[in-house]
Design brief:
Blueprint: E1 2-10, E2 15-22, H1 28-40, E3 45-50, E4 53-58, E5 62-67
């Protein structure tokens, strides 16, 4: 199961860090492709967590997502 932490910037300008995991995906690159494809759909929604809270993230409210770097920034 792949898990990632995303920093999401909403259309309103607010930001939040959320955790997303998908049991059927084991590779983080595939997980990111899945997240992007889901949020790009008109009715795309992801079930995520913010701390212990369940947060449903709808693609129409997302302005950008950031993923923690996986290596040194050059």
């Amino acid at each position: 199961m792949a898990t990632t932490v995303l920093r999401v910037r909403l259309v309103s300008g607010d930001r939040m860090d959320i955790t997303y995991d998908e049991p059927g995906i084991s590779n983080q690159d595939e997980l990111l492709d899945h997240i992007i494809a889901t949020l790009a759909e008109g009715a795309g929604a992801l079930r995520t967590k913010h701390g212990e809270r369940l947060v449903v993230l709808y693609g129409r409210g997302v302005a950008a997502i950031e993923v923690a770097p996986r290596g040194a920034v050059t």
